[in-house]
Amino acid sequence: MSVITKNTITKRTTTKAKKSVFIETYGCQMNVYDTQLVLSILQKHDYKIALTEKDADIVMLNTCSVRDKANQRIYNRVHTLRQESKHPLLIGILGCMATNFKTDLLENKRLGIDFIAGPDSYKELPNLIKDVTETGEKSYDVTLSEFETYSDIYPTHQSGVNAWLAIMRGCNNFCTFCVVPYTRGRERSRDPHNIVKEVQRLVSDGFKQVTLLGQNVNSYKFEQYDFTDLMTMVSDVPGLKRVRFTSPHPKDFPTKLLKVMNERDNLCNQLHVPLQAGNDRVLKKMNRSYTKQEFLDLIVEMKALIPDVSLSTDVIVGFPTETDEEFKDTIDVMKKVEFDHAFMFKYSERPNTRAAAKFPDDIPEEVKAARLAELIDIQKNISLNRYQRHIGTIEDILIEEEFTKKNKDMAMGRNDSNKIVLVPNNNLKKGEIYPVKIVGASPHALRAEQVASC
Ligand code: SF4
Questions:
Q1: Per-residue model confidence (pLDDT) at position 9
Q2: Which residue range is the domain that position 334 belongs to?
């Protein structure tokens, strides 16, 4: 499948002055990764990275179409940038909104967008910028590719402990509430050997943890290699302390993957398993490919094969036509599974999705709000209980910050299950792993005391 919408190429000449670019990133981690890709592409074409939008000749907004009122937020931001800029400024839109709202963005004269690039067109950005600079006409490319994985580009990583690494792009599932298959195209995966090389380079650059990214990360498939093969290959990279991944689909957790995760120390015992809803009729309407019972069976297998597994999930309440009785099925699953953590949202219609076209958003706002409040309340108690189970245990934590914003004497790290752990900083170093004893818990974080290393 390929949707081609591309401007005419105009005469090109070499630009001598070094222009500076600044990118604001909205939405998911894939966008954070893509911003690093774009910066890497532009640096190779002699652009400088500006530290703020005020220092930049070109500002790009790497957008997301998932959150409510995402468009309005971007339109307001473009307006503010135009008003506050003291010099001529080129403004470009990247990401999901570029594909989803191309016509709107181009035709809205008051908005003043100069160029647009969809998620598969970032290599075209130097040309798009040159075109608009030379002709003064808006330029755009929102082609959705069947092949582009940016495998040949090493992103401009920030320094830190964790590096995000996209292993696949796109999605073939067409959940009715989701716009991703339309804005980011079909699934395609990177060569595993190329991924391993990137991980080796990240480790030699000082990163201790990688988080493998994909819209549907565990559907990874490249020739004979599946996600379990890739996890094994990545886990074998010397010096890599922790491997995580997000965001998976419940349909792609084979037994062999769970076994490998349990066997290998650096594959973290943490699984995000997006439930979305607990009722079979609602799940079918969402076009999720499992029933309530199948989901619960999967969780039983996960807990059996990874005994200390930490589970998290995503839930949407108030999907069109969801009844009070059907919502109780969601509560039932949440109570039975006991997730450590849950991201819970009220349904809100996303433009250009199947749900928006076919199902009127018919659950009153106050009903959605009440369901969400009830679920949050239930989950808060479950989370507290799950976090309290750590008290008294000795765990390894990877230090992410040597002191927190609130307390300069406390360091912040994460344990294997990705829970935040606060510990008095007694010479703890960012990026190092230390054993600590957990002494306290809230529904969102653990408190610990340092213990002597063996
Ligand atoms: S699997 Fe995820 S990315 Fe794909 S359509 Fe469903 S919700 Fe969207």
A1: 34
A2: 270-389
